[in-house]
């Protein structure tokens, strides 16, 4: 059985759509993207009787307007500031020389006679830590700028490069507030609170000027410490004198009150007077005991109760007892001074006056010791400025730090540009 060839359909115009003009079978193809299949694809379709589809090829990348704006912003925000900074630092900026000095506040640790008398002088001096804090603020204050400007013309020195270098110089018409602001730029102060040490770095147009300014800072700081010492000594002496006068007046009042008490009562020492009265009372009690013993012995020897000797002993015993009672009554109830004051009240008044006098004497001794300590401290300088690093003389200009400033400028400008680009694309995606 022979296989029949496939039946070819013809169109009404007599042409066969399944074959070409040369009689070969026509390959069915499907256009995709307007492109015809290539020769290898046609050859493959002949073998497997299948149709192959092509994928579109990506077009070359083209720069759009937003890309151009991004590149322009990169140039304006990063490249241009870095370029301007580099040009300024290398051409216009003038060299600056730095001088470094280190100092701290010390307190005299030598003992004196007042320390042996009670150690009160340690309570009179101000703490070193608080004075170091004061010195740290003083070096950055306007007062030290005015004092240094009186010895060194700061405006004339720092305006030499104006207007060639306006960033690292000050204008000629600057006021004291402007000079103070520029001073804090030229003087870098480091302070360690734990040790009280300070390091000051002074920048100037030449090494000699920087070293001289460092010397002036040390000199003015020492003068400030001397003023603190003088003020502390003056205040300490004034307070010590006032305390001594107050203690002396209290002691005088206490002694005068005790003298008036003795003149009013005609008793120098009530305790001694009481001891005398107690001695009399003790003697009477002893006599009463002896009389009672004699009376008992006589009763044992005499049987007659009407014996005159017994009556005499009884009268003696009665008299001694009455005397004892009278002494006790006088001791507790009798008016001693004529103003209804008995002995217990008298003793209470005397003891109160005696306590006041004792306390006034102790206060006077303490005030006298403090006064001696203040006078001893006033005779010498308690606080002094220790200069542990002498002002250095620079041999090379360390400022301005060109590489560091350029690197910081590039870093900050890159950070700003990145933030701006992120914000732009974020807003664009949301829109």
Automatic annotation (TrEMBL):
Stretches for region Disordered: 1-44
Top-rank taxon: Bacteria
Basic and acidic residues bias (residue ranges): 1-12
One of the record's GO molecular function terms: protein tyrosine kinase activity
Keywords assigned by UniProt, alphabetized: Coiled coil, Membrane, Transmembrane, Transmembrane helix
InterPro entries on file: Bact_polysacc_biosynth/exp (IPR050445)
Protein name: Capsular polysaccharide transport system permease protein
Originating species: Roseinatronobacter thiooxidans
